[in-house]
Each structure stands twice: as structure tokens, then as C-alpha cells.
Specification:
This protein has 168 residues and is mainly α. The protein has six helices and two strands. The protein has a two-stranded antiparallel ribbon.
Length: 168
């Protein structure tokens, strides 16, 4: 069961990483936050991914908590993928928006206002619960500091996105 858990975690981590990697923005995308904040996000988002990936290769007993974290990460990843799918052409990378874009209310957006941000936060919580129990405190702290920045960024971005839609 340990090997199955490890393979599922690795597969989910790889898919998540590929899905959230920055891609070319639409030409009319505008920043929601100062550009320096977005650059810092782009510098920090890979650190928790690498820390978590590294933690998977430490020998550790896999119990119900680890399986629960895996399920949480899969749900988070599914929210991110479904959110991207439902946004279609309206998708921008985190921290950007399209002026005059209408709020998407179909698909997953009918249930959750910010499914991609919610999914990323679920993955962060899941991965953090795994690596803080396996790694030296300094490495866990580095990952957690980056996670706090990412979560703060996502919350501020979500609030600003909501404001943009209200004004549109």
C-alpha cells in the first residue's frame, strides 16, 4: 500500500505542477496586484512543490492521515483542472484578469466562486500536512513560508477579482 500511495502522490503532484505552470497570457490581461507580487509568487510556488516531492522519498509509515491528505490533494487538483476547463478562453494566470470579462457561472463556477484558488489551497494544506511530519524543521519552515505567501496572494487576488466583476 505504501508504493501505491507514493505513486498516486507523485502522479497527482506532476499533474498539479503541469496544470499550474504559467502559460502565455492573453494580450489584454491586466494585473490584479503589483507586478512585483506576481513575480515573487512565480519565484516561490515551486519551492513547496519541490519540498513536498522530496519528502515523499523519506521512509515513513502510511496511515489514514496520509491517505486523507492524498484524497484532499486529488480533490484540489480536480478543482483546478475543472476550473481551467470551465474558464476556457477567459483563463489568465493567477494575479491577472481580463477587463470587461463576465463572471463565469457555469460548470464548477456555479458551485464555487474561485475553484482554482480553492483547489490550490487544498493541495497546499494536503502537501504541508505530509511534509511537516517528515522533513527537518528548517526545510518544512521554508515550504510553509512560501505556502503562507501563496495563500495570502490567492485570497487578495480573489477579493480583487470579485471587485473587478462588480465594476464590469
Amino acid at each position: 500500500m505504501t508504493t501505491l500511495w507514493l505513486l498516486l502522490e507523485l502522479a497527482n503532484l506532476i499533474v498539479f505542477t503541469l496544470v499550474i505552470l504559467p502559460r502565455k497570457q492573453p494580450v489584454n490581461a491586466r494585473p490584479l496586484l503589483p507586478v512585483i507580487a506576481t513575480h515573487l509568487l512565480r519565484l516561490t510556488f515551486l519551492i513547496p512543490i519541490l519540498v513536498f516531492g522530496y519528502s515523499l522519498f523519506f521512509s515513513h509509515q502510511i496511515g489514514p492521515v496520509e491517505w486523507g491528505c492524498l484524497i484532499l490533494a486529488i480533490v484540489g487538483n480536480a478543482l483546478v483542472i475543472k476550473g481551467k476547463w470551465d474558464l476556457g478562453e477567459s483563463h489568465t494566470w493567477t494575479g491577472y484578469y481580463l477587463p470587461r470579462a463576465k463572471r463565469v457561472t457555469r460548470g464548477i463556477f456555479a458551485w464555487i466562486a474561485h475553484p482554482m484558488y480553492t483547489g490550490i489551497i487544498l493541495v497546499i494544506i494536503s502537501c504541508s500536512l505530509v511534509y511537516i511530519t517528515r522533513l527537518p524543521i528548517w526545510l518544512s519552515a521554508l515550504g510553509l513560508i512560501c505556502c503562507f505567501y501563496i495563500v495570502g496572494f490567492l485570497i487578495v487576488a480573489a477579493l480583487r477579482e470579485d471587485r473587478q466583476f462588480v465594476q464590469a
